[in-house]
Amino acid sequence: MNQEVQNYNDAQSLEDKKICDLLYSIINKNLAEAENKIWHAHPVWFLDGNPIVGYSKLKDSVRLLFWSGQSFDEEKLQNEGSFKAAEIRYTNSDQINNQDVNRWIEKAKEIQWDYKNLVKRKGVLIRLK
Predict the structure, then answer these.
(1) Strand-pair partners of 88
(2) pLDDT of residue 118
(3) Mutual orientation of helices 14-30 and 3-10 as an angle, nearest 10°?
(4) Given this model, what pLDDT does residue 36 score?
(5) What angle do CA 26, 117, 89 make, to 5 degrees?
(6) What pLDDT does residue 82 have?
(7) Cut 0.70: pTM above it
(8) What is the gyration radius of the CA atoms in the chain, in angstroms?
(9) What is the pLDDT of residue 1?
(10) What's the rounded Cα separation, in Å, for the pair 67 and 79?
(11) Exposed e or buried b per residue across 95-110, where buried means at least 16 C-beta atoms within 10 angstroms of its C-beta
(12) What is the DSSP string of 83-109?
């Protein structure tokens, strides 16, 4: 595990650390080719410089965020923000369904919006895949 990500996970409460460690394991297994780093203070995976998936500790939960998740047509994912991101929040590691997360990661590889160039395009988001 990337040391920065390990430090992030280790800084969480016991249950939140379980959630973060499990999410890391699932994501890293399915996105082994992706760059993984702390970005905007939480772990994020990138394909070709484009953010794909990440997780972050919120006040009352751990959020799993897919940058292109609104395009996945998945009812368990909730819209987040004004672009194409979608999320699911966990308060217990038992809530994580490996099959769901694996499927969402596969969709994240196939369905991508160009967040990498969002600033250059002055807020206009275009679909890459």
Answers:
(1) 64
(2) 61
(3) 150
(4) 96
(5) 35
(6) 76
(7) yes
(8) 14
(9) 85
(10) 10
(11) ebeeeebeebbebbbe
(12) SS-EEEEESSGGG--HHHHHHHHHHHH
CB atoms within 10 A of CB 78: 14
Structure-block tokens of residue 14: 């016991």
By residue count, the chain amounts to: 129
What are the sequence ranges of the domains in the chain?
3-110
Considering only the top CATH level, what class is 3-110?
alpha beta
What type of residue is 48?
A: D
At 23, give phi and psi (nearest 5°): -60, -45
Instruction: Please give the structure tokens belonging to residue 53.
Output: 């998936």
The list of the chain residues with pLDDT below 70 reads 113, 115-129
Q: What is the DSSP letter of 84?
A: S
